[in-house]
Amino acid sequence: EIVNKKKSGIVHSRKRKMDETTKLVKAQEEPLIPAAERHQVYLAKGHPYSRANIVSKAFFFWVYTLMKFGSKKPLEQTDLWDLRKRDCSETQHAKLRRNWIPCRDNPKKKYPLLSAITKTYAWTLGYALTCNALNALLGFSGPIAIKIIGDLIEHKSGNTSEGIIWVGILFVCKLFQSIFGHQANFTQAILGINISNGVSTQIYEKSLLLTPAAQTTYSHGEIVNLIQVDVGKIQMFFLNFSYLVIALVQCTVGMYLLFDFLGISFVGGLGVIVIMTIVNMVIGVCFGKLQKALMKERDKRMQASTELFSAIKIIKLFSWEDKFIDKVEGYRTAELKVLRTLFYYAVFSIFFLYMTPMMISTSTFALYTLVEKENLNAATIFAAIALFNIMQEPIRSLPNVMMSIIQNMVSLRRIENFLKCEEIPAENVSRMGMASNSIEIENGFFSWGVPPKNENEVDSSPKGPAKRRSTAGSVFHPKRGMSKTTDIGHVKPQGNTESDEERKEGEDDQLLPAGEEGEVLADIAPAVLHDINLKIKKGEFLAIVGEVGSGKSSLMSAIIGDLKIVPSPFSQAGSMISTQVRVDGKISYVSQKAWIQNDTIKNNVLFGKSFDSGRYEQALKYSCLGPDLEILPNGDATQIGERGINLSGGQKTRVALARAIYADSQIVLLDDTLSAVDNHVGRRIFNDCFLEHFEDKTRLLITHGVQYLPTTDRIIVMDGGRIVQEGTYEELESQDGYFKDLLGVHFRFTNNKDDSENEEGVEKDGEDIINENPPLKLKKLGSSMAENDEHNTSFHGTNS
After folding, report:
1. What are phi and psi of 668, to 5 degrees?
2. Of 35-39, 74-78, 636-640, 773-777, where does mean pLDDT reach its minimum?
3. Pick from 133, 139, 236, 239: which is nearest to 185 by CA?
4. Taking the C-alpha atoms of 656, 657, 658 and 663 in order, what is their torsion angle to the nearest 10 degrees?
5. Which of 23, 155, 344, 612 gives a 20 to 30 Å CA spacing to 394?
6. Alpha helix (H) ranges present in 373-420?
7. Are strands 437-447 and 564-565 parallel, antiparallel or unpaired?
8. Residues 33, 34, 40, CA angle at the centre, nearest 5°?
9. pLDDT tens, 367-414?
């Protein structure tokens, strides 16, 4: 039996070894999953915080997998999981916007943005404050335990187990204090980032919706300053707001415990705290005024620096570096002067900050000795010192918190003023289907609007905005500010017997809503387009002509909704004549000054749309960009510099035209597109693109090239913001009026040119093409005419 048992044991042992060997061989034959692939599978499950339980969230176990993977290799962007949808900028923007609009429209809200932020993140803010309050309350377990254990040791009362129990209670309290403290910090960090994302996207969206008048008030540098500086201060305020709660809770509970330990003697420490609080409040008020002055000086410096880098080519060309450096350094010196004064106040605040705890303990113990007339025992001293140490941090942080609140109020007001600026109303243009027309404008009166008063501008009038006298024909232009239409050279069409003075008076009566005795209020913007009634059929090719400043580009801005609709001067009491703008179809707009992204040529053409090779090749073909891409170093992958600095004027215009072609919109607005290209290139674009490729689209072309007008379906002539003539080329040519005067000026100018200049040719594909009837850039009528100096781009993209 013994031998049989040994044999069976040996057999079982051999079987186990064979099974283990077989498993090992199979494991070696099976391919191992790399750690990187396992990590990608882990990331595909979503954000681990959303799947973590309460214990994992409390002790941050959910981040352990990432830390373990990071210990093996440096982490990259692809090794991190995607953000939760609730933390994305789009979600935060939508949440904040829902609460911002009602708060903005409520006049009872003194700080509407603060109210909107508080309402949006109320639950998260409440959770963070609760964790901070529990953290602060559990912090007092130390002094209480020290007092009790000290009494047990001093009086030798009780047994050892009671002391051990209190030590265990102290350990548990400190454990939960750490949990609540780290949860509060984590929640506040997420809260600050979400607030920053929500407010930043709100500012960015607002910058895209500002009226042209409001855009003149806030420069790019000021808007960037709002996002980079002011939003950061709001974020830091909410991160530090918990310290204010901790300070209040700790000071209240600490004073109660001091009264319990020391009696009425704690009033000495309380008096010191009250005095230091008053001193800090005075310093805080001065600090706030200096902070506001500092932000104004910083805005001036940022604006000057932005303008300097924007015009660096001109500055370098004329060797103006020293002059502009002195200007920027002047703004910097003024900023440093305010900053130096601000730091003086900060030094006084820090001095009182570190003196306060020592003064509190000294006054309290001295008063206890005088009032109680008894010696302090060790338990009371150690417990009181522990309480003073707990109260020391909130007392020290109180001035910083107050400064943060003051700075936040300044930043809040600055951001609120920007977010309250006038927007382009979405209802300016009605998107609706129409049977035969693509664009309809009825009773059109439009204005650029009046720019809002920037907080950096100081009103010299002690009584606020004053009234101003009406200016003849004055209009607001987003780039030139307040100007006069009568400053533009004007030739009176034949048959017009109205004098210039009568026209000015008539414009004053119609454009400027008058107050008492002919005065107008400064915040009422005069119209730049008057009595516009226009219907454009689907597929029609409409040309818009007129002298410089007649309102051609403003008409296109009105069609896309960039102009503000103003009340009609013909409206009477009880009846309101309203402007109606209706558009049927998607619009592509090629502005007079080409808008270029700091990106590749291909991405500029695609403009965020999906790539279609057929449409892309058509866009390059009909915009005549093919030869330019051949000579560029990387073709359509060539990176375009800031403001298109490495492209010529004609190339930038053709990139913008290619973007409009690729968009394949039903309506195409072309604002003097052909003036920036050479004559032969312009003729090719006009014939192949405007007439052939855009044949089924509604086209509006602003042009000074009279030779293009006979091939258009209809022509409208503008003067002084009004449509003065309308019809086909043959109809207008046969009529006496403004258009015939334009043709006369053009033909006189063409006939006076030298024969040699008319016979100049441009070699293209081995053929000499004669520039007959080159496009004419009409200047002020009645003044000297000159060739268009913007024709500086050759067909192959080099400087002519």
Report:
1. -125, 125
2. 773-777
3. 239
4. 90
5. 344
6. 378-419
7. antiparallel
8. 95
9. 888 887 777 777 877 888 788 778 777 776 777 677 777 777 888 888
In angstroms, the CA 518 to CA 471 distance is: 11
Cα Rg, the chain, nearest whole Å:
38
Phi, psi of 73 (to 5 degrees): -155, 155
Is residue 770 within 8 Å of residue 479, measured between CB atoms?
no
> Tokens 């060309």 map to which residue?
317
CA distance 622 to 684: 8
**Sign of the dihedral defined by the CA atoms of residues 156, 159, 164, 166, in that order:** negative
Q: Is the dihedral of CA 35, 36, 40, 42 positive or negative?
A: positive
Closest CA to 42 of 74, 10, 16, 64: 64
Which H or E run includes 244? Answer: helix 231-262
**Three-state DSSP class for 469?**
strand
Q: How far apart are CA 151 and CA 85, in angstroms?
A: 55
pLDDT digits (tens, 9 = 90+) for 526-567: 778 888 999 999 999 999 998 888 889 999 988 988 888 887
| DSSP letter string, 156-183 | T-S-HHHHHHHHHHHHHHHHHHHHHHHH
For 322-366, how does the pLDDT look when each residue is reduced to its tens digit (9 = 90+)?
Answer: 888 888 899 999 989 999 988 888 888 888 877 877 787 788 888
Q: Residues near 184 by Cβ (< 8 Å), separated by ≥ 6?
A: 128, 131, 132, 135, 242
- Specify whether the CB–CB gap between 762 and 769 falls below 8 A: yes
Distances (CA, A) of 63 to 43, 56, 66, 159: 12, 9, 6, 44
pLDDT tens, position by position, 142-196: 888 888 888 787 776 656 788 888 888 989 999 999 999 899 889 988 888 899 8
160-209 helix and 112-120 helix, angle to the nearest 10 degrees: 120
Q: Counting every residue, how long is the chain?
A: 800
Residue with tokens 């051949």: 630
Contact 417, 457 (CB under 8 A): no
Give me the sign of the Cα torsion angle 678, 679, 681, 686: positive
The residues facing 440 across adjacent strands are 535, 582
| Angle at alpha carbon of residue 60, lines to 54 and 64, rounded to 5° | 125
In whole angstroms, give the CA distance from residue 65 to residue 40: 12
3-state helix, strand, coil in the chain (%, to 5): 60, 10, 30
One-letter amino acid at 515 equals: G
